[in-house]
Every structure is written in structure tokens, then in C-alpha cells.
Amino acid sequence: MSARARRLGRDRRGVSTIEFAMLAPVMFLVIFGLGELLYQAYVRAVLEGAVVKAGRDSSLENNAVDQDAIDAKVRAMLAGLGGGMTFASERRSYASFALIKPETFDDKNKNGKRDAGECFDDINGNGKWDADPGTTGQGGANDVTRYTMTVTYKRLFPVGAFLGWSPTQSLSASTLLKNQPYKTQTSNAVTSICT
Questions:
Q1: Which of 48, 91, 120, 129 could form a disulfide with 173 if both were Cys (CB 3.0 to 4.6 A apart)?
Q2: What 3-state class would DSSP assign to 130?
């Protein structure tokens, strides 16, 4: 019996198969995870390029009214990357680059947030304090527009489930551009409100 045990102890046939079976799950997890991250970087790069181009196009006077066509161009640029992508676009306009920030307020109690009764500068004229004082849409002449496109797609590999990732990935890209001075710009007077 001991001679047979020694012979089996020296037998190395099938060791590579067992080692491969032990290492294969980790190796495939790394390879597919890396593939997923590389695909995400590629989609982000294409999305950012498409958004910059679309933002530039939408700031021109002849394109300002046809925003759906601009969004369709972004979708077309990303269509070759795979099916099942969903898109959501947003446009916010501001009178100048300096106004792309929360409306200023007098922080009397120094807590870093606006509380009731603290005065604020109503930049957009809506009578309430806004963390984002922009108005929805492309805006008018000389306005600054922030164009954002969000794309959501199914992940390429199911490996994300093993890593705790969601089965879908969402990426966003934004650009800020100043509209051409294609007509007279309108502006709101900034008033200070204490409510």
C-alpha cells in the first residue's frame, strides 16, 4: 500500500489541468473586467467628442431652434458602439460664465447652506434661491449654454455581477459654449430677496 501511495505522490499527470481550473476564474475575471473598463473609456471618449461637436453646432444661430436634430447627431455618432443605448440630453443657459454657480446668499449663521430668512441674489428672476440658476433650454444670443448628454447601456460582459456592478452603465459628458450674438441679448435685473 505504501509503494502505491508513493507512486501516486510522484505522478504529475493532470497537474496543469487542476492548476488551470484553479486560476481560470481569476484570470477571466481580470480579462473581462479590464475589457469592460476599456470599453467604458472608449464610449466616454466618443461621447465627449460628440457632445463637444453638438455643443458647437447648437451655438450657431441657424441650429439654435432645431435641438432635436443636434441630439440625433450625437446618437448617430454613438450608434456604432452597440445597440440598446438610451440617451438623455439637458440644456441649461446662463447670462454669463460667471453665473454658472449657486445664487449667492448672506450666510448669517455660517452653516454653509441657505436657510429661510437669509437674503440671496435672485439671478434668474424666479423669486426663489437656486443651487443652479440656469434656465432650461438653449438660451438666447450671447448666453452661455451647458449641454449635457447621458448615455446608458448594458455592460458587455456579465462579469460585473461578480464584482457587484450594476448590469447597466451610465456615462455623462458636458460642454459649455457661448451662443453667437445672433440677436439682441435679453437680461434680467438681479434683485436681492430676503425670505
A1: 48
A2: coil
